[in-house]
Fold these 3 entries.
Entry 1:
Amino acid sequence: MSEPSSLSNRPSALIGSWPDAAGRFGPFGGRFVAETLMGPIEELAAAYERFSADPAFHAEFRAELRDFVGRPSPLYHARRLSETVGGAQLWLKREDLNHTGAHKVNNTVGQALLATRMGKTRIIAETGAGQHGVAAATVAARLGLECVVYMGEEDVHRQAPNVYRMRLLGAEVRSVTSGTRTLKDALNEAMRDWVTNIDDTYYIIGTVAGPHPYPQMVRDFNSVIGREAREQILDRAGRLPDAVVACVGGGSNAIGMFHAFLDDPEVELYGVEAAGDGLETGRHAAPLSAGRPGVLHGNRTYLMQDGDGQIEGTHSVSAGLDYPGVGPEHAWLKDLGRAVYTSATDAETLAAFERLTRIEGIIPALEPSHALAHAEKLARERSSSDIVIVNLSGRGDKDIPTVAALQGIGDLPG
Amino acid sequence: MSRLEARFRALREEGRAALVPFVAAGDPAPEITRRLLPRLVDAGADVIELGVPFSDPMADGPVIQRAGERALAAGMSLSGVLDIVRGFRENDAGTAVVLMGYLNPIAAMGPARFADEAAAAGVDGVIVVDMPPEEGEPLLAALRERGIDPVFLLSPTTSTERMRRIASEGAGFLYYVSLKGITGAGHLDTGAVAEALARVRTVSDLPVGVGFGIADADSARRIAAVADAVVVGSAIVRRVEEALDDPERIPGHVAAFVAELRGAVDAAAAEGSGR
């Protein structure tokens, strides 16, 4: 067994050492923003560089993850699910057990600590499913910061429980009615707020997208997921997994899980996008599977766009994956062939959701249910000596009204 | 000499500031824009800034967002915008046309093809809002090769050192964003703008235009007293919106406002500006 303490000290020439100084992951990433944001972004990058090298900052971050978030999260061997599916062993990284119910809080804790060190008193965030918004509102309450969360009007309706949670926590939730009224428009609106209030405001982007340094910073704060999982599986099984699977919307839980394994070539990495009604229908949210490179929200990456370069609307049963772009590091890992990107339809996702709920007594969020759906396919093709880890990035409480409506259960409020 | 350079040189000799109205191409329909452009010139426009609609206009306020949505709904695309410029050039060889938009539609067309077609259509300058000079290649080289001026934005958050770098990449004119915020915001501080322009002029001899937040004749006059060009966007688009129920009225309604702005800009010259 390898020595866990050496795991994060990988040689700098390896894949995991990206991005470069300009924030590029190969041809992807970069800093495509209006001039007014260049100064604030350079200031943010300088602050992040300074504090990410500061042992006191790290100690505080680790203490918050332990005492406030509840880390480390367990790595759970889902034996009944594995037997039911047949084939490989399925292990679940239980990010759903974190405080606030998803991996998003790893990042908001880190960025909020950075915000306070930069002297900012107001934080803003965009949210789709509401998990990032809740995580931002939570750390804002914890640190006494003012918080405004932008959320597409459509998502405000379909994720009502999370809207209440944010308001209970003292955040102001602003419903966004421009464009397609979903996550991408919430991100546009948050950028507009930031550019207008840059003196006192810190923008906590919730995924590994946006201009440099966001993709790197959000990845770094979430990479605790994969570091823990790698250590846990070495400890429990005595070896590395054969495959690691995570859902990909913007891609923060996936990159957080993948990063510790990037330089272990024997570990296959699978990112699962939302195929919605099916890739062939055009009603999906799968830019890596069916899009092409372009520039949106500050970085160059794979996008869902039409022939004129207009961004297309997305469709997914899960609001958290309803995004037409993806983090630039995923775009790079796809082109390098280091990770394989695939997709799961709404129907496959709901079946996996139901299976985990009934067989393991764990109600997953719809987002990682996409990863579960693909992991089950992988497991069936393999033997029981193989190990597949799924990042169970969030719990499904927020999705209960959605699933109830789809199953025709009805009579649930909300 | 480029059209932008020639126009700014002539205006400087007259002691006047340039008037640069912005309209979103295709708002609310391509045909309306085709008829509106010559009316802008008759009303006193020196340079026309033509907005290329994009689905995700992150730097724009609600007024220009709505204009872009109307234009996209009417089928406007980057090729369609170039068509409009081509048509305009058939009858106007002197008024400079600057496109303003976001990078992705240009990237989708391809930088070289875009530069070719823009040059052939008679485009003089291009502002790509979300493309700082650091991310400018390969588009910048393609534009320069065809004699199209890359116009860059400067903002209240731009350091003097950074201004120097941006100025060295830009041509035609520099566009100073008068406030921290999005287009159409309403807190214009003329004193702060004057100070910033003094800073810009220590690093560049290019003409300097000012935009974002110039809402009426009075603010246009105040900015004309300190800047080489006055850019008015949201306030003009608002005039388009006022006439949406009868689109035939749009060219006349907008032209009347632009004529009012022209009067205000020239009044600043008559008062003897500090330019």
Note: Confidence is low (pLDDT under 50) at residues 1-13 of chain A.
Entry 2:
Amino acid sequence: MGKLGKKARKFAKKNLQSVEKRSRKLKPFIKKKFAKRNERHQAGDKQEKKVEQQPKKRCQEEEFQDIAIDAVFGKDDDEVLRDGDSDSDGYLDELVNETDSDIMKCKVLSRSFLATCCDMVDKEQYVPALVRLLNWYRAACQYGHEPSGIARPNIYYDIEDSETFAKVIIFVLQKADHTFRSILGLSDSSTKEKILKLKNNPKWDSLKPLVKSFFRSTLHLVKQAGDLEIISFTLTQLRVSIVFLAAFPDLLKKLIKISVHLWVTGEETISQQAFLILKDISMVFNSECFDSCLINMYKAFLHDCDIPKANSEQRPFLRDSLVELCSQDVQKSYTKASVSITQLAKLLKMALATKNKEAVEKIHSGEYINCVDLWVNFISANVQDCDLQPLLYTIVQVINGVAQLIIGPRYLLLRVKCIHWLNHLSRTSGIFIPIASLVLDMLEYKTTNDGEKQEQKLEAVSTVKLPKNWLKSQNFQEQCIFSVIELLAVHFAQWSFHISFPDLATIPVMRLKKFHERSTMEGLKRVVKRFIEQVESNIEFVQRKRDDVTFSPNDQQSADTFMQLEKQNANAPYTQYYQSIIDKALGTNKKKKK
Amino acid sequence: MGKNRRKQKVIPPPLLPPDVAEEDIEFSDEDLKYVKENTDYAQFVSQIDTAAINKQCGGRVMTVEDKYEEERSKRKTLQEEKGNGEILVDPVDVLPVKTLDGKLHYRTESKKSKLAEAETDEAEKDVLEDEHVLNKSQRREKAKKSKREAKKHEKDLPDEILQEEEETPQAAVLAEVKEELSAEESFENKKNKIAELGMLLLSDPEANIKTLKDMLDICKDQNTKIVKLALLSLLAVFKDIIPGYRIRLPTEKELEMKISKEVKKTRFYESTLLKAYKSYLQKLIIFEKQSVYNQIANRCLCTLLEAVPHFNYRDNLLIAVVRNISSPDEVVRRLCCSTIRYLFSNEGKHGGELTVQAVRLIADHVKAHNCQLHPNAIEVFMSIRFDEDIGKPNKEDEHNKKYKKNNKRKTQEEQNQVQENERKKSKKDMMSKIRDEVSADHRGVTYEPDAKERRKMQTETLSAVFETYFRILRNTMYTIGERTEEIPTSNPGAFGSHPLLAPCLDGLAKFTQQLDLDYMGDLMNYLKKLASSSSSVSNNTKQKNSKLLTVSERLRCCLVAFKVMRSNLNALNVDLQDFFVQLYNLILEYRPGRDSGVILAESLKIMLCDDRHQDMQKAAAFVKRLATFALCFGCAESMSALVTLKTLLQKNVKCRNLLENDAGGGSVSGSIAKYQPYATDPNLSGALATVLWELSLLSKHYHPAISTMATTVSNMNTSQSQTFLSAVTPQQAFADFSLVKESFEPKNESRKLNNKRKRESLPEEAKNVPEIDMVKLSKKLKENFTILRDIKEDERVRMELLQSEEKKPLKKQNNVVKKKLKNPKSKKQI
């Protein structure tokens, strides 16, 4: 911006008339104030960028070596965008009013004039009126944020009042797409290829600057606006005409960058709208845009995971939306996922071999855990449609390694999360993943001071490690047992109708019985007792069905179809018990949130 | 000589003044004066020479005598008396000066008497010195020096005075130099002393054996560094000096006999060496108890025991080393353990005697500390080696013992006597078998005593080792079975509750071949009780949980039992069912991360895979339990269980009924019609009545190797062509599939991806919902926003007003422009 200012000054000195010089003397006083404000905004942006860039580099260099290659690609994107910014951005030419432009030095938009133009554009698709309207739209979008360089000093646009301002923006955002399509003779369901063919259309040559001006102004509005609903409305309308961006790749990249930023930092509605734009871009345009969207979102997601937040409620949304984007093109996402999971496996292997504090801390960092969470959800979402067996195998090994890296009660939350992941993968893929040994090991977490009844509030701790004080509390042990029962319940629910359920449940039931004999807390005893009874009743249930069967373990298909009717029927006793446990778990989660 | 000196001395005083007067007065008598002067000079020269020689000789004698007297004073007191004689010599030096200064006759006479006495003493000393000390070369040097000094004295008398004055500051300088020695210099001096003494001993030990005492005295120094250096130096010296044989002191009779000089020297040398060595060892043992010298003392003791295990006082060394076998200091403990391992593995140096003593001492040590030692203390036994020959007579004894059962005599003495008789009989048999060759007889005669002694020593070693092992087993049982009343008295030691149990069981497994049949029954009973310790202690409180044996420890007991039976080729009819029962139950109690999976895999291999005779019921029970085990544990454990399961099914064809679901399986299952998953006895579980349904779930395992193995096992019955023996053992399977070793990369990557987009419709539904509301809200907010921007316009207007009147015409022009714009619009509308 500073560079442009200098050029503008030189241009002004050379080309201005004496009378216009006087008017310039008056204007700088007003502009200086706004210039200072702009500088402040820019400085703030620079500081934020510096802060953001540093942790990204550290993360990329340290843990994900292959992704660092993508970082170089990202830099190239930034350079391209910067080049795009340096293009000259001026008002459109008004051919009809050339004679008037010499006389008129300042144009003010009035209500009546606006109404006339709107009617002409809306009903008759009169191109000159559209040109004027887009110029006023540009002025409205940049109102209060005019750039210092003006290409046409003889024209100055101003807006009469607030109502006119609002009408201009709303009308253009609502009607622009329809108008463009009607002029070009396109339908609403036109595809990218048709738009690319527009280059052969003679009308496109005259209409292209208008479309470009519209998009540029809209992007500027999205950048500068601070209001929630204005941005949301703008993004919603921008989605409708996103196909036209095929002709403007620079603007497309700029939009991707802005959308990723809003997706990560915005609130719920803005984040959703931004994600929808990114999704449309990845669906409509070619594979390069998909790659850039995926890479930018992935980096932003990991960067966001590094920052500790009080409210981490939005993170699941970010993760789910990223998974949804990856699911659009599983072929390409598979490549990215395999690279990332391989990196996770290497880090884990180092930690298992050396047991260094640094290596273990990397494994226990929020970034590593959230990355595993991301890929677990991705594989769970797509494992039935596609063949993701290698990814599934590797990620399960990684999760087992993380759970067994350090055995101790302080890492209870991490272990519970790992087992949740394994249960999730098993449920969605239909593959058997044993978790009993991991779960039952938590029964061995013995607390010293059993008599103490410290009712410390178990707030939702997002950290991986628990403080030492909590290990002595009674609530901790209760949480251990409830987690064990919940996890086993989920595991058994998946296989409760499988022919080998009695054998699967033998060892866990035996361990729980011993625990039941050993423990002295009545509440825990009651819960464990009920769980054991339910499992045993289901064992008898399956046993009776199994005795009537005529096939042998060789016959895999008939084994799979075993008890299908009972499975669909939701009145099975264990299913009801499982639902009650899940409801209790949800209830406890709600209480925790409150 | 004395008389001549008296006459000469009387003459000079009267002659000197008149000669001078004559010279000054008469010039014509110059010739006469010259002659007289010459005669006087000749007389003076003779006098001066004798005095100078006497003085010079006296000084040299003093210097030499001082040196030798210093040395002799350490040895003899007589030399001190001679030192007293020197004092008489000192005033002699002073006398001639005074005589020259003083002119009184009386003083000169009194001094003359003293001079006479001194002269006599000097003469005697010269004679002694010449005989003993001075050599020809030294004599010549003295003669030259005397001549030089004579030339000097020819010049003038005052030169003598100057020389005398020079001597006194030298003495002062020496005194000052001595005072300047600081502690550091004394430290270095002591270091040098240690080095010199060491070098002397190493160069010629027989001649310099007495210096050992000097080095031992240095050990009493207060500086710890010097003490350490002295100890290490003595260690190096003793290493080299000590001969390759054991020193035997002479008896009283031998002392009375006449001995040659050479024998006297060697005896003196040996007795002195032994005394010094003994005192050195005593000091080491004392220093060992002090924390400052603990490590160095132990290092010296261990090094000596390794270097000279054959020498005298080795018992004391061994006692000290064994005492520190379970020292809390890790460095000391490692030193001692490695030393004892060295002794066990290098019996050639000491003939095996130290092995017996060491094992005995360790056994006593374990007994004294009530089995609460560091595990390293007993791992040492693994280095002991026994000859293969020991087994043969033992086996013969075993056969004979079977016959002895009728007699029922079990006293040790009788057994020893009977063994001797048996040995004689065996020898006779050997003689009878061999053709009566002379060479065979000679060989037998020459080697018999060595073989006998060696067997005795090794049998004693074995008995001590097994005594220790059985004590540990008994102690373990006792601690587990303690009553609640004795809880506070028995606390686990610093090394854990049962630190010696694991090395004890490992040792038993190694030495099973040397174990007697009589002890096997006891051993098996102990192992049974230990392995089944959980059932008997089930009612105890939580506080006792630390005393219970872990799963891996109980698995070790089962392992040892099977190894014992394996090595004896199942000679005994011992019931091993209890161990199978324990293994059957321990499989359920296994916990990865806390218990060792390697031991589980090893026990599966030895007890199930390598077992020859198995009951069908038992095999089926284990097959079923291993399948259940594979469903609940990680890759490594599951894989080892499946490998074992496959091996069992391959060996027992009838057990393959588990792979099929036959309605009429009642006849095969036997008495029990239903499978009891929680049964504790494998024979009563009724496993044949069930089917291996676990395999259908395991075939869906996420690990491809496990799913493949499960599929192979389930198809074993139908496709018999695949029944080849698997080369993989449970141990290898466990090692290969553990998380640390296994690679995380999948081997076969198949990228056949089928894109199915089914979720496109869902997000579209969410689009329409917020639009309606947003339109209204956005309008309202934009109006507010524009209001804010109106404020900005007002600011602009203010700026314009503030500047000057010049703005007014610009405004007018703007108004004109606006008016003109309106006009064309109206025309267009028309």
Note: Chain B has 34 helices and no strands.
Entry 3:
Amino acid sequence: MTDATGGGRLVVDGLEKQYELDGAEVPVVKGVTFTIEPGTFTSLLGPSGCGKTTTLRCVAGLEHSNGGVISLDGNVLSTGTKHVSPDRRDIGMVFQNYAIWPHMTVLANAVFPLQVSAKRLPKQEARRRAMEALELVQLDAYAHRPATALSGGQQQRLALARALAHRPKLLLLDEPLSNLDAKLRDTMRHELRALQQRLGITALYVTHDQSEALSMSDRVAVMNQGRIVQEAAPRDLYYSPADRFVADFVGRVNMIPAVVRSRDDSGDALIEAFGSRMVTPCPPAIGTGADVTVTFRPESVRWHDSAPDRPNVLPARVARVEFLGEIVEYEAEVLHGETVVGTLVARGAPLRSPSSGSRIFLELDPTACRVLAA
Amino acid sequence: MRIATIIAGAVIFLLLAIPLAVQVITAFRGPFLPFGVSSAKWSVENFQTLWGLRDDFWAVLGSTAAFVGGSTVLSLLMAFGLAWVTVRTDAPMRRVISVLVVVPFIIPPIVKAQAYLLMLSPESGVLNQLLRLLPGDLVIDPYSFVTMTFIQALTNVTFPFLMIVPILTSMDGSLEESARVSGASWPKTLRRVTLPMLWPGLLGVAVLTFILGLGSLEIPLLFGQQSGKSIFALKLWSLISAGAGELPQYGLAAAWGCVFLVITTIAFVIYLRATRNAERRASISGKGFRPTVMKLGAWKIPVMVLVVVFVLLTAILPLFALLWSSITPYPIAFSFDALVTQTQFGSFGAVLADPEFWASLGRTLVIAGGSATIACVVATVLAYGIARGRRTGWSKAMDLFASSSVAIPAVIVGFAMFLTFMVINPVIPLAGTLVALVIAYSYRVSIAYRSGYSATLQIRMELEEAALVSGASPLQGFRKVVVPLLMPTVFAVWIQMFVLGTNEFTLPAFLATPETRPLSVYMYAMISPRSAQLYQPDQGAAMALIFTLLVFVIGYGLQWAVSLRAIGRAKRRRPLPGIGGTPVIEPDEPVSPDTRSVAAQDLADQRELAKR
């Protein structure tokens, strides 16, 4: 399997899914649309109950969708009425709890997809391919152990090997790292991404952990209440959130209310927040006089002992300092005269941090600020 | 899959519903059989007759209530005490005690009944001999009502014990600890916290013990005939085994059956409510905890004395009495003199040389094995279908129905099956065949159904879904993933039902003919003075011992064989994420409608379980 398996192009268009709960139809997925280009890695990111797992399960065929079209490489897998069963979709899937069959050996788990597929392989060939898949995840030495003798991380790898053994066009991953401890999770994250890129397989990954989504994906689709609110490359998502939900969900963020005072043609706007004037880039749709929210990341705030001679500086008092190891996080009360008009969270290097109660000046980098409609 | 579920459901429905329906119809249709005889017509005559004999009716009702109720309370007290000692105290040899309490489970009740009879014999009984050694003039009358009740309690104590142990084990000790920390003494904690918490669970156990007691014929048959008090099981049995020249009064017997069916239905409803409350109170937190252990201190000696007395009464003395009876030609009191001069071992040889012994043993194995297989296969298929299927009104009703066979006393099943085979005999001649016995024994499907249901819930949906996305068809997934994972449970239940089947006496007492009788009935013939030619008490005792040994060897042998495989696997096994209980590390994400098909299924199942 060292040769790239190649990936398929997944198109999900207007996916709808309702559940019946106590007699009522509860919509869970409301018209989700996205495309995954062959060989790329897309994450569905969102809070509990946003519909991301349901979307994944519809793609897998484990749920019958109520509407919309799912197709892989042009083959329609499901519409509201048509439903190709999961065993005919040419997919591999890794489950949250690994779903390793406890009554089989490691090899038997990995060879299973090759034994049951419609195009049945000769025994030797199936075995060879399963071993290859195990080699990919460095489990070939464990092939004849009972699957349950593996540690959590190894079971995770086995689940991956099993999902890849029959060289599917699409790999589906349902929060596969959430049961691992923090250290192992980081390692697996790198391995998973490296493997996906090496094989060139198309991957759809579901997670509620933004750092997983940001670090592994080519594209991230943030979901909320059954809809995709923004789909973008990780960097764009982080620095240009489409709305307050995305800004808030992906990483820590400061959101301050402001009013647009004037605009110029270059796309910058003069805004007023906390009684101070600031300059930030502003989307053209927002006109003068509009109430807006300015968002910026805690790490884009710099602090000074004395006011620098630059725009976008707010006077503040340090309310709380929290030492987190690699960084220091502090909460600052923004002052207008002597009254507190708001609070901001900022982050900085731990070696030089303000002390609690001291008066400081916060400088916001205009390029890191995003103006959103309030 | 769907079709298999429907077929299994239909089989269970027919198995339970038809006999009960036939019984009810018989109660309303004439004095004899409801169909095919000229006297059959719709009437309430049987109930009028029953009411006409109301002195008798009330007497039977009263003595049955006292007998079954009394023995239930007694065996619950004993079972709770023993379970408490083994689970919650620092008593020495707790494991040995729990084994000694459980071992009588495999002694057939009819053997136990006979052993007690021998042990209590006023002249030669070993217990009365022992009592004579004590000061005072104590002799136990084996045929008194109190003795009979007590014997029934001793015979059945294993059943509530096996059910109470897990309840006590799973109780969250921190709830008691917090009561203790709040300043409550041990007795006060027990009264204010422990018992109220356990109460619904114990009530459920009480109801099932009550139904078990109501349904068993052994003790009333051996003890009750002489006590002059008529117990329901005995009444039913004697109504259909009419003396010479009389017509059996099936209609009247069916009317009796209906009355008691109503009583057990009420009891079953209480049971359902009690267990639902038990779920609601949820003393089971699912975390790995050990229940706190009570230090016995000065109480250690009295507690151990009581335990020893119990083991003497339930295991050692009965077995000794059997052994003594088997080596003496007629009932004589034990003495060393008699041991030297009177004993002979011919009875064992005679039993082993008796072709009827081997024939009835063979039938026992066939009936027990056949019925256990039928019940396990059908119940497991249905349990899987219902546990995995959509919840509809039908599936809920079927679920309740398949769980309800515990609520039908064996004696009613025996009688209703007997009637049914008589009624269908012109069309399907099964009366008096081994097949009839196999079908009748299979009625205990609910044991297999309940186990199959919870075993299915333990297999996470993900394991099956993983097979599907790997390219397996639903049938392949079932065969390669579900079946192997359900197998250990099914085997364990099979063994349990097989042992129950070999022990069964009540059902064949109604259904077996001399040509089809299993060992338990043949043995009863040997020890019952009423069966003139066959009456050979020493051979009967020898047979009882051989029988017990065989059940022991077969039951434990099978269990050992299965556990060897299971242990061999478990040794190489770590805690399994995906099967049985919680994953190794809990997912960060709380259960949400998003992961619905897995999570909501689990939730719905829990809710369903809670309702039960």
Note: Chain A touches chain B through 58 residues (CB under 8 Å).
